[in-house]
Amino acid sequence: MSQLKAVSTLLSASMFGQLLGLLSLPLITRLISAEQYGVFSYFLAVFALLSPLVSMNLPQALALTTSSRQQQFIQWLTLATAVRMVLLIFLLLIATLLLVPDFLPGTLLLWLSLPVLLFINAFNQLQQQILLLNKAFAQVAKVELSQSLSLNLGKILAALLLPLAWSLVLATFIARLIALRLLLRYLPLPWRKYPLLLKRRAKLWRRWLRYKDFVFYQTPQLAFNALSQYGPVLLLSLFLGPVIAGFYMLAKTVVEAPASLVNKVVADIFYPFIAGNKVSKLPLLPLLKKVTLSLASLAILPFTLLFFFAEPIFSLVFGADWQTAGYIAGWFSFWYYLVFCNAPAGRVIVVCRLQRFALGLNVFTTVLRLGGLILCLILTQDLYVAIPLLAALGVAHNLCYIGMAFYAAYRHDKLLTKVV
What we know:
The protein contains 15 helices and no strands. 85% of the residues lie in helices and 0% in strands. By secondary structure, it is mainly α.
């Protein structure tokens, strides 16, 4: 019971952090211009795309260790990988800034901070995974809360004192440092051994082969998921400018907030019941239908209101300059309404072992979505054509995803009736 309480505390801290970030947005958008927020959004998109490549998802391999020696080896391997990847990213940044500077909007200082922030993020992931391995859930929750508070208060203060993109990045940098300091304080292992561990020499690719599932399979999948989420931000900024990227990022953040807050809770509660039915050879479809329809009826009114009144709502809440973000949010409302409803479907797909087909669907629709967006921007250069296209493809993806889960549950129940 104490472990369950600790896990729920960690989940609550994560949800509180997301809610705090959402509540801070009206203040930030009234203090900073759409262009500067767009440059910051572009920076975050590049950061999200590169983050999985820095640590190669090696911290997750700590869960498979059986001794402190193996743990120390993975710590060394993660840091050695992160150092080399960050140096490579730094060189690529310099080359990009020299050859195609328009590809990286903002100041030189902004982009030179990216490799440092990526390394700190990889180090934090490593420390946090060690704490989770030692079941220090309460400590991780405190780190989550502290980072969220410092990040959002820092961004408000930065926007108030110096409303520029690099000041928001500086606030992010300070929040990560605060999280790192707390993680090192709680860490039960002797972190001062890291400088010694980094001095060991070995061919990394041979070491990676021992954890190839994390390096060669999970890392590309995480990078692809990041591309699916943040690829449109990069494309809109490159074709239409950072202002449009800022509008897109704000709209996406606001519309997906209810889905992300509710999705994980519902999925975690629903999973034991649907897994129990699978193990006990009981029908899946009635339970899936009941929970999905309950979520659909709960969310239909707010998402419908958002569809019709998003532009005046955004103008009122975030300021008159952000009305275009309301246009984007209105088109995205039905898409994220389906995201809100698909949490039970995701768990049915896991229980019925259809992850491979779900991944194939995700790859296909992401390529279609990004390819369609590029083609649309090349031909029209029009936001008011690109956004409805993105929304329609997002709706199609989620309908296919939910349909896959319902068909799997139907097949499962049909086989049960044949056995009986």
